[in-house]
Each structure stands twice: as structure tokens, then as C-alpha cells.
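cron nightly-structures :: item 1 of 1
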Amino acid sequence: MSDSFKDRQWKTLDKDLKRLSQVGTAAQSVSRPLVGVGISLAFIIAAALAAALVTGNTPGLLFVMAAAAFGAYMALNIGANDVANNMGPAVGANALSMAGAIAIAAICESAGALIAGGDVVSTISKGIIAPESVADSATFTWAMMAALLGAAVWVNIATWIGAPVSTTHSVVGGVLGAGVAAAGIAAVNWPTMGGIAASWVISPFLGGVIAAGMLAFIKWKVVYRDDKIAAARVWVPVLIGVMSAAFATYLAMKGLKHLFDIGLGHAALIGVLVGVLVGLVSVPLIRRQSVGLENRNRSLKVMFTGPLVISAGLLSFAHGANDVANAVGPLAAIVHAQQDGEVLGQVAIPVWVMVIGAFGISFGLMLFGPKLIRMVGSQITKLNPVRAYCVALSAALTVIVASWLGLPVSSTHIAVGGVFGVGFFREWDAERRWRRMDQTLPQAKRLAPEERRRRKLVRRSHFMTIVAAWGITVPATALLSGGLFAAIMALQ
């Protein structure tokens, strides 16, 4: 056998092996999403079976099992969509790897839900439907199931198209649509709905303004200074103290209010004390960390990475404590209505219901969260630890300001609004610096207007997609849940 013939055989074999490798890679990329779907279905079925085991011979057992499945489905979608707002900036800034962010978020979300998730939840989300308007428990059960399923389907669609939406608003829309279908439009508390609608604008605007203001302050006091490291030694401990005060107040108000009866004044006092203590402790740590750092912007990122990681974990804890009710609130209401045969404004949340919510959020994050984490962290605008820190701090400060003003806000809108605020501030700051340079450069060396437009730092396509998704969340979920309730009643 000649050498040339052997060479041709080896080349043919190499090509065949390469084709097989490509087929295998393609098969893996196709099957990977199916693995997530399979695990999700297994979790939903396990939640339904667990509900049957725990509730035993409860009247309406099939209703409870179906509601548990829908609640598990909603929790999975909250994990896939909502948690990205807390972890996206840290991942986009390269302060955390995707795996590290998912691990921290899963632990903190579950801890927040189980430790501080509360033992009582409003059955009619945000009080938008009067409980007495839905008299019999059977109609109420069907309405809550339609609300839960409609909200979950909408959040699933939003995750699929890559739009971070408010799961709180999704549940509000679901309850609104199912409540109107069950009890009529007169049952709606329209002033409450007006406040919720106002939060669509208030939340992202406040988040964006505060994040942009924090970034402007850091640039003014640190980034644009001749000796950046010396300025950082002075101001980074102050900023860490502010962050600690904000998060201590935030957690006292939102994450720990279920454990302790605490008002805004006492929460603010706790925050100030914690902020001063942490700020003083961080002074020697920052001085030690700054030794040997070069006088450049890249060195500043080192000092903000640690606070950013801690803030992401704290945001996840508070989110788990508050938003788990979006998944388990209607489920708890259905369980109570089936067991006691009555409709109440508030009901206790059984431990097993809270566990479904906590584990569902964690599974949804691990299986489907990376898509939205990348969207929030890197696809809207470019983030680094300094900018991401401003977004995280903005989330805590905005909730405090909104609570002080008595305004309903969405954590999703605040966080994403903070990302937009940072991005638009960077555009304004870059334009300002270009204009200043134009005054010293000849016409031939100036950037053309077309080039300036091309260098926009916020992706307008993502901006429009997200804003549109926010605007239609409540109407979309209301139509979905109302249609589901009407279809259920028609089949009976």
C-alpha cells in the first residue's frame, strides 16, 4: 500500500471524525435547553406530589396539587427573570463569574425566603380586588389559579425574549384580570391600581437618577483627580459606609420586617449606626489594599469589587424575603380557601408552601437565569465594578426613598433603571468631554456627528424592548388570566 493512499485514508478519517464532532456539539447545544425543561417539569411534579403528601385528605386536594404546580412554575420563572437584576451588574463588571453569581444568589434568595419571607401574605395582591367581592371559595380558587398561571406564562415569555420584567406587576395584572372576570370591574380598587401604574415610571426614574448621581460623585471626587489612589483612600470607606447604611436600612425595612415590627425611623437609625461602624472598619482595610496600586482607573476597580459582591448577596437576600410572596401568595390563598372554605384578605403561609417558592426561585435561576444575567450585566451598557456598585447602591437607596414618600416601586424597574441611568450618564459625560476637546482640536481631527452617534453607550434596541415589556406587563397578564378564568368557567 503506497504512502499517498495511506495519507488519503487518514485525511478522510480526520474529516469524518470532524463531522462527528460537529454533530455531537450540535446535539449538545440542542439538548441542553431540554435538560432544563426536564428538570423544571420534575420539580413541578414533585411540588404537586409534596402538596398531596402534606395536606393529606384536604377537601379539594386536586385543586391544591394543581395550585402547587402553578406556584412552582411561577417560582421557576421568578428565578429565571427577576434574580438577574441583582446579579447581572456584578457579573457584567467581572466581579463575579456566572457560576459564582448563581451560587451566591441561590443561597441568599433561599435564605431570604425561608428566614425572613414572612408568615402572612395578602391573598389579593396589593389589595387591588376586594375579598368580599368573590364570595364562594370555588370561584376564588379558580380565579387565583388563573392569576398564578397567567402571571407565570407572561414572565416565561418575557424571559424568552430577553426582557427583565417585574414579577410583582405580573402577579398584580394576573389578579386584576382574574378578579375582574370573576367579580366584575367594580371590584377593583382603582386608586391602588393608579399607584401601581405610577410606579412603572417612578421606579426606573428614581433608580436611574440615583445611580447616575452616585457615578457622577465618584468621577468628581476620585476618577478625575490627579492622585486617584489618595482620593480613593479617603472616599471609598465613606462610600462603603453609605452602602452599609443603605443596605442595613433596606434589610431592616424590607427583608426583616417579617421578623421584627420596625418603622422607617428605627430602620434608618440602625442603618446609620451600621454605616458608621462599617465605614470606620474599612478605613485600614482600604489603605492596606491600595498599597502598590498604580495611579490609574483600573486600580480603582480592585477597591470596589468586594463591596459589589457583598451588595449583590444582600440584594438577593432581601429579594427572596419579599418577592417569594409573588409565587406563593396565591398558592397560600388557595390552600386556605380549600381547607377552611373561606376567603380572607390575609392568610398564613405554610412552611411547605414557602419551601416550594424558595427552591423554585433557586432552580429557575440555575437553569434559566444566565440569559437575563447577561442581558442586564453586559448587553444594555458596559459595566465595571465602579458603575455596578452605583447600580446596587441605587437599588437600596431608591427603595428607602420610595418608602419614605409612600410610593409603590418595583425592584426590577429600579435595578434596570439604574443600569440605564449609568449608561446615559456615561453618554452625557463622553459628549461633554468631546465638546471640550473640539475646542482645542482642528476641524479635521474632530469626531464626525455620525461617529458620535455610533458610539452611543446604551443599546437603544434593548432600551425600547424593555420599556415596551414594562408597559404591557399588567395589561398582558390581566388578559391572560382573565381569558384563562373565562375558559375554565366555560368548561364547567
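cron nightly-structures :: done
The mean pLDDT is 80.
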